[in-house]
Amino acid sequence: MRQGFDPSRLPGSTSSEDSSLNGLIPAASSRNKKKKRDRRTNSHHKRGHARKAVTNEVGSKIVYMPQLSSDVSSVTNDRRCLLDSILSLVPDDESIHNHIKQEFVNTMSSKGDTPISVGIKALSGQQMTLKHVTCLYKQPNKSLVYSLLNIREQCQLVLVIRLWTRKVGPNGENYTDHCVAWDGTIVHDQPRSVRVNNSTDRSTEANCRAVLQRLFPTKDYSSWQITHVFKLERTTIKNAGKKKEGARKGPVCMGKKKKRNYDQRRARHRRFC
Questions:
Q1: Angle at 45 between CA 39 and CA 49, to 5 degrees
Q2: Which of 10, 57, 89, 249 has a Cα-to-Cα distance from 66 of 20 to 30 A?
Q3: Contact at 8 Å (CB) between 176 and 81?
């Protein structure tokens, strides 16, 4: 009888000991070592993925856009962020752009910041305007940047952002107001813009702030805050048809009313006489 043979074992069955001797399957000790090695490897990979997830930047992508106001040379003031924001939102038509540029340059001052009223006047010739809509995007327990970046449909917004600089100006000022455009997909700025994805960039308050942080890095600015939101929209003459119709029918109606009042007074006078 073969050494190590067990008569109680069923025909065709093989013990782990025989299998290990014949090289069919590894012994129990080898399998345990492999399991421990796999656990260490998986744990190492998980820790690596966790470190990468923590240090990884948000999914926003920096894109370089041409400066639409670069051909404006008739004014020395280079504070044209409002003009660039407007041109990023209006239809891509050369005649419209040229008209807005000309009106903007004729109105803006030769130095210093440009008020929103200059942009409104430049847009008026194209039946467009900038409407103040900041209150529409203020939500309880939500920051303004979170509410704005979670607009997932197409929009036409100009954001006024106050930037606190690390350098003090000649008059002691330490901040400046800057304009960017937001169309629901890209935050348009110069010289760099940022494309916002639909997942990680909009998921949390921190990720939303990180998107704009790429445009205003901490090495240049100590802090920033969105102060105003303006919506680019068309201007229409409200109820123009109704006013015209009322002007035509008004005198007739007034005449009937006056005649009826005169007849009533005359009837009362006769009754008392």
A1: 145
A2: 57
A3: no
